[in-house]
């Protein structure tokens, strides 16, 4: 249940209806409150203010009608402009970026402001009465304070409209789009992979904490001790609630092994996980384990770092396509990918073995590796960048920048392997002077990474890495 609530919260953040609805309800309550105050306090207080004067029923109706009509017209125009900008951005940068624009709080508040002002004006307009309108001898009623608040809302709406005119083109500017994705990627890495104190526990293939049923070499009898828990939904795993998963495993005294991770597609009948021992995994336990998974129609960035990396790769790949041919946009994506991978290179990644509060193994998750992230970021983009000299040089510079933040020899070897693969691609995709330039830089980077003092070598070669002294 908690996983579904978290998914619902994310869906609400990425909707155009939730914030305007809340603001419209707030405007309705504000209108009722102002009218109530006016009906009890009257308008005598305005006589003490020389710059204010009490409005008459006909003038108040005309004012509120003008406000309401103009606000609903501006709201419609604003919505049209927003949809046009969203369609342009999703077509230009990729459909997976649509959720980034849908979740933009500025657009949601702008639309909500105009709708709220319209609702407020309509409700207050309904309460205005002329003399004798409600019966013989009935006094006129004009909510003077409510009218003053309506004028304030109009001024706020004008300010929001000015903000909106500036906000939309800035929002769809490609550098700002890339920055928001890169910032979120780095923020998610910082939240998910804190720097550990001390040395992480080494995981061995024959780790005694791992049940025999989940080891690489297992016989048929051990295999039969695993209980399969299958999916009842079809779609992308958007969220795995670790606390619910751990609680269910602890309550039923189980060790579970996950078969999927956030971002993977599953269908009804897919093997979500396996539990050991099978005799303790009854239908109640299986349902409790399924509650930890939130499945939807699309991938999200809730727990899926790969999705954010894929967004940057998609923008860069589109920019390097023959129809666009914009290597400098690809370079911006490479800059943010290198910043994220450099941040990741300084961190110890968590073990796939997850224990409960009593240090008892409960969950065997998918291994999270530096090599996997490098392959997802640079490996996926190599085939596109290798065919363009400008992007290829920047690609090698980005790998060198990541290497400056690596301490682990295995990670340096991973970057060297990625450089060699990229060099081979460029050797085939380029020719002439462009090919020679890229190969020389690739060889320089490989020589630097092969040295024990590779950091000094890279810093001394800062000019070819793309920096300035």
Automatic annotation (TrEMBL):
Signal peptide: none annotated. This is DUF2254 domain-containing protein. The chain crosses the membrane at residues 16-37, 67-88, 109-128, 140-165. InterPro entries: DUF2254_membrane (IPR018723). Keywords: Membrane, Transmembrane, Transmembrane helix.
